[in-house]
């Protein structure tokens, strides 16, 4: 039990599909995040939610659409993706958005866009 | 914004060798500094952290000291094991961004 659970672990989708990634945290944290991890690139912060409100959107294309229905759940809705969107998508949570609050990561969803 | 630079990998060591992975930072003020580790097929896990200058973070035999004179936070371990094979990330917060990560250093330990 990592505290942060992501499903599915692997996903293969075509460019015209619509799919969603799910993240659930069991730690009572107030902030949740989506990161993208691509080979040979630093982790890229995509979205930040604090107390269910989106507080940061780092110029992510609109084909990625986050949703945070409550403080325990975070979704990333995907549609009309491109092959370059293939990556490991990591969800994380922290007690607060504060600088000293460590991030707890899930094991990620490995996404392949064909 | 704040940033980190860590040594390029991969690093390959024999079991029981000494490990150093270099990390230097550029920051406004003195933010907390972190090392995370990513084992194969998993997400990132916090390995250790230091919250102020001269602090030493330690965990599982790994250590890193927050040195403001050299703006460094190098990761060290005296005797690595095969189970330490993973990717190691140096990180620090930047503005409202929770953490900015280095590119990661892949460590392979061979028996």
Which terms summarize this structure?
heterodimer; A: mainly beta; 7-stranded mixed sheet; 4-stranded antiparallel sheet; 11 strands; 56% strand; B: 111 residues; mainly beta; 12 strands; 53% strand
Structure description:
Chain A is an all-beta fold and 114 residues long. Chain A has no helices and eleven strands. In chain A, strands 2, 4, 5, 6, 9, 10 and 11 form a seven-stranded mixed β-sheet that branches. Chain A has a four-stranded antiparallel β-sheet with strand order 1-3-8-7, with no helix packed on it. Chain A is globular. The N and C termini of chain A lie far apart (32 Å). In chain B, a hairpin with a 2-residue loop joins strand 7 (56-59) and strand 8 (62-65). Chain B contains no helices and twelve strands. The mean pLDDT of chain B is 94. Chain B is mainly beta and 111 residues long. The N and C termini of chain B lie far apart (41 Å). Helices cover 0% and strands 53% of the residues of chain B. The A-B interface holds A 2, 4, 6, 31, 33, 40-43, 45, 48, 55-56, 90, 92, 94, 97, 99-108 and B 31-32, 34, 36, 41-46, 49, 51, 89, 93, 96-104.
User: What characterizes the major β-sheet of chain A?
Assistant: 7 strands, mixed
Low-confidence runs of chain A: none
Structural class of chain A: mainly beta
Helix content of chain A: under 10%
Helix percentage of chain B: under 10%
Please give the structural blueprint.
The complex is a heterodimer of chains A (114) and B (111).
Chain A: E1 4-7, E2 10-13, E3 18-25, E4 31-37, E5 44-50, E6 53-57, E7 64-70, E8 73-79, E9 87-94, E10 104-105, E11 109-113
Parallel strand pairs in A: 2-11
Antiparallel strand pairs in A: 1-3, 3-8, 4-5, 4-9, 5-6, 7-8, 9-10, 9-11
Chain B: E1 3-6, E2 11-14, E3 19-21, E4 23-26, E5 33-38, E6 44-50, E7 56-59, E8 62-65, E9 75-77, E10 86-94, E11 97-101, E12 105-110
Concise synopsis of the structure shown:
The complex is a heterodimer of chains A (114) and B (111). With 114 residues, chain A is mostly beta strands.
């Amino acid at each position: 039990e990592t505290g942060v659970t992501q499903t599915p672990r692997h996903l293969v989708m075509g460019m015209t599909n619509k799919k969603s990634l799910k993240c659930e945290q069991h730690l009572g944290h107030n902030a949740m995040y989506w990161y993208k991890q691509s080979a040979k690139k630093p982790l890229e912060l995509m979205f930040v939610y604090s107390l269910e409100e989106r507080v940061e959107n780092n110029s992510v294309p609109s084909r990625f659409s986050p949703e945070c229905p409550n403080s325990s759940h975070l979704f990333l809705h995907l549609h009309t993706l491109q092959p370059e969107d293939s990556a490991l998508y990591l969800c994380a949570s922290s007690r607060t958005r504060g600088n000293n609050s460590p991030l707890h990561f899930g094991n990620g969803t490995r996404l392949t866009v064909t | 914004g704040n940033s980190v630079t860590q040594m390029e990998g991969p690093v390959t060591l024999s079991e029981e060798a000494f490990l150093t992975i270099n990390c230097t930072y550029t920051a406004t003020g003195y933010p907390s500094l972190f090392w995370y580790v990513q084992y194969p097929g998993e997400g990132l896990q916090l390995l250790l952290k230091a919250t102020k200058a001269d602090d030493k973070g330690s965990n599982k035999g790994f250590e890193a000291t927050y040195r403001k004179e050299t703006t460094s936070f190098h990761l060290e371990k005296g005797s690595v094991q095969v189970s330490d094979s993973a990717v190691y990330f140096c990180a620090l917060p930047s503005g409202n961004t929770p953490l900015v990560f280095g590119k990661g250093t892949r460590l392979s330990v061979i028996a």
